[in-house]
Write a structure and sequence with these properties.
The complex is a heterodimer of chains A (about 290) and B (about 200). Chain A is mainly alpha-helical. In chain A, about 55% of the residues lie in helices and about 5% in strands. In chain A, a hairpin with a 3-residue loop joins β1 and β2. In chain A, about 20% of the residues are buried. Chain B has 2 domains: about 30 residues, no CATH class; about 150 residues, Cytochrome c-like domain (Cytochrome Bc1 Complex, Chain D, domain 2, Orthogonal Bundle), CATH 1.10.760. The longest helix of chain B has 19 residues. The termini of chain B are far apart. The chains are: A mainly alpha (about 290), B mainly alpha (about 200).
Chain lengths: ~290, ~200
């Protein structure tokens, strides 16, 4: 704070403390001219009178004590302008100390298993318990507390993985997040082309479809879709392009194929590396891996 | 009449004197902060909200989100582990009114920006229980059908500029165009995704 405020604060605070002390002493010494019946002569509402009984001594001493306390406090802690106080206490330092102690404690409890290879890690009960808690706190909001996903948010308990299901893939996904982008194909396919490709995609998973449209769609699929989803439509981990030959539909059902082709689709898994440290990411990744690799 | 009696029997005079005494505390605790750099200057990288985010902030306030959500991560270990780096004063210099709050029926939102995807926010605001089955947050489905109030947002920008937010004349002139066809849902999601992003998200 500026020099002006620094001194203003110091002067006003000290002046107040001195003034309180003076008030305390002055009023305790002052004699009120009382009447014979020990009243002050003040009368309210016709007959309400004020007795002049002294305040209890111990109670007055409490006032003095608060003043002594304030002086001690101002000596030890920041309070007078820019003066730091003899302990040089700050809330940030207090927080840092507590945070470091907590980090140490956490790392100590992780030490027993954090360096185990993944196949052993998923068999460690404590590791999985902690992993599950991290999952509940951070991942369940989208993927569900049972990790079975929801419309638009992948099921993590099955064997279908858009970005790869190996432990390292999961680790990368959680650490850096993923951005799946399917562009809109309306300009390239038009309305008729969209229907044809949709029919072909349905044929891949054995869903009822128009066979003549599907035959037209196969060639267009090769031109526009195979680059990401692969010529066999089994998807590609590199782009997060889903396998289209199974009957798993991330965005609800096969009924959205036309809209997806026409308008495009986005999927975004936010990065977690700013929220969770390396150890916690490893534990939660191991937990997710364990769901489909018992 | 003694001085004591004069004060005691004149409530107006006593009121004035009480106000004078109490105002000293205000001067000492509040006034110095108004000139302190860490409180009045933005943290590096903090930008005033763009028109869409500002419209979102107005939706946040008008829907009363602050009744259940605070926007202040306190400097305690458990809070930083859950929400990220504790909040600092320089982060809210462009929040008028600030949304710190102390009432947490829902989680703190000071660092919610980037934590979930836009799609998640849209689904969650329309029907919270479709993604969080145990949530007690009400749904806000009308936000998706209500266009943002363009005129009000532009007026907000003008007033905030008067109060010192560094909007340029171009920013204000182009604001209306950037808000066409935007719904209150778009605005609120944009606002939420901006919250707390000027600081490192985690304390590590």
């Amino acid at each position: 704070m500026s020099n002006f405020w620094h001194w203003t604060v110091i002067i006003v605070v000290i002046a107040h403390i001195v003034a309180y002390l003076w008030l305390l002493l002055a009023t305790s010494k002052k004699k009120v001219d009382k009447r014979e019946d020990n009243t002050t002569g003040h009368v309210w509402d016709d007959d309400l009178m004020e007795l002049d009984n002294p305040m209890p001594r111990w109670w007055l001493w409490l006032f003095v004590l608060t003043i002594v306390f304030s002086l001690g406090y101002l000596y030890l802690y920041p309070g007078l302008g820019n003066i730091k106080g003899s302990k040089e206490w700050t809330s940030v330092d207090e927080f840092k100390t507590a945070y470091e102690a907590n980090t140490e404690a956490r790392n100590r409890s992780f030490a027993g298993f954090i360096n185990k290879p993944i196949e052993e890690l998923i068999k460690d009960e404590n590791a999985m318990l902690i992993g599950k808690r991290i999952f509940s706190n951070n991942c369940a909001l989208c993927h569900g507390s049972d990790a079975a996903g929801a419309v638009g948010f992948p099921n993590l308990t099955d064997d279908d993985w858009n970005w790869g299901g190996e432990f390292d893939n999961i680790l990368t996904t959680i650490t850096g997040g993923r951005m799946g982008v399917m562009p809109a194909f309306a300009p390239a396919l038009g309305e008729e082309g969209t229907k044809q490709v949709a029919a072909y995609v349905r044929s891949l998973s054995g869903i009822d479809h128009d066979t003549s449209l599907a035959a037209e769609g196969e060639q267009k699929f090769g031109m526009f879709c195979a680059a990401c989803h692969g010529p066999d439509a089994k998807g590609n981990d590199m782009f997060g392009a889903p396998n289209l030959t199974d009957d798993i539909w991330l965005h609800g059902s096969h009924e959205i194929i036309e809209t997806a082709l026409y308008e495009g689709l986005n999927g975004n898994m936010p990065t977690q590396k700013d929220i969770l440290d390396e150890n916690r990411i490893k534990l939660v990744a191991a937990y997710v891996y364990s769901l489909s690799n018992q | 009449m003694s001085k004591h009696e004069k004060i005691e029997k004149n409530i107006g005079l006593m009121g004035v004197m009480v106000a004078v005494v109490i105002s000293f505390a205000g001067i000492i605790e509040i006034a110095p902060l108004m000139s302190q750099a860490s409180v009045v200057e933005p943290v590096p990288g903090l930008e005033p909200r763009n028109p869409l985010e500002l419209a979102g902030q107005n939706v946040y306030v008008s829907e009363g989100c602050y009744n259940c959500h605070s926007q202040q991560v306190r400097p305690f270990v458990d809070e930083t582990l859950r929400y990220g780096h504790y909040s600092v004063a320089g982060e809210s210099v462009y929040d008028r009114p600030f949304q710190w709050g102390s009432k947490r029926t829902g989680p703190d939102l000071a660092r919610v920006g980037g934590r979930y995807s836009n799609e998640w926010h849209e689904i969650h605001l329309m029907d919270p229980r479709s993604v969080v089955p145990t949530s007690n947050m009400p749904g806000y489905p009308w936000l998706a059908d209500t266009p943002v109030d363009i005129e009000q947002t532009v007026e907000s920008m003008k007033v905030l500029k008067m109060l010192g937010h560094p909007y340029s004349d171009d920013d204000i002139a182009n604001a209306a165009a950037s808000l066409t066809d935007k719904t209150q849902l778009d605005a609120l999601v944009a606002y939420l995704q901006d919250l707390g992003t000027a600081m490192p998200r985690s304390y590590q």
